[in-house]
UniProtKB/TrEMBL annotation:
<protein>
    <submittedName>
        <fullName>Redox-active disulfide protein 2</fullName>
    </submittedName>
</protein>
<feature type="disulfide bond" description="Redox-active">
    <location>
        <begin position="10"/>
        <end position="13"/>
    </location>
</feature>
<feature type="active site" description="Nucleophile">
    <location>
        <position position="13"/>
    </location>
</feature>
<keyword id="KW-0676">Redox-active center</keyword>
<feature type="domain" description="Thioredoxin-like fold">
    <location>
        <begin position="1"/>
        <end position="76"/>
    </location>
</feature>
<keyword id="KW-1015">Disulfide bond</keyword>
<dbReference type="Pfam" id="PF13192">
    <property type="entry name" value="Thioredoxin_3"/>
</dbReference>
<dbReference type="InterPro" id="IPR012336">
    <property type="entry name" value="Thioredoxin-like_fold"/>
</dbReference>
<dbReference type="InterPro" id="IPR036249">
    <property type="entry name" value="Thioredoxin-like_sf"/>
</dbReference>
<dbReference type="InterPro" id="IPR005243">
    <property type="entry name" value="THIRX-like_proc"/>
</dbReference>
<feature type="active site" description="Nucleophile">
    <location>
        <position position="10"/>
    </location>
</feature>
């Protein structure tokens, strides 16, 4: 599973990455994490507001920092659990 946080590296982006890593760790999911700061790449996902979370190239959230429990629900769904 590849989890990307889209954004310019702001505090909210860092918090979203932290929450995503914690969610994956708590679920025991082997994931690769990537920060995407390039505005053209961010726009290619149709994101107008950051931070945004992308799981396996699927845009999940944008414009807010999702909590650990919310991200865990998404990861379970995306992992097919």
């Amino acid at each position: 599973m590849v989890i990307k946080v889209l954004g310019g590296g702001c505090a909210n982006c860092k918090k979203l990455m932290e929450n995503a890593k914690r969610a994956a760790e708590e679920l025991g999911i082997d994931a690769q994490f990537e920060e995407v700061k390039d505005i053209e790449k961010i726009m290619s996902y149709g994101v107008m507001r950051t931070p945004a979370l992308v799981v396996d190239e699927k845009l999940i959230f944008s414009g807010r920092v999702a909590g650990v429990e919310e991200i865990k629900e998404v990861l379970k769904k995306e992992a097919g659990n």
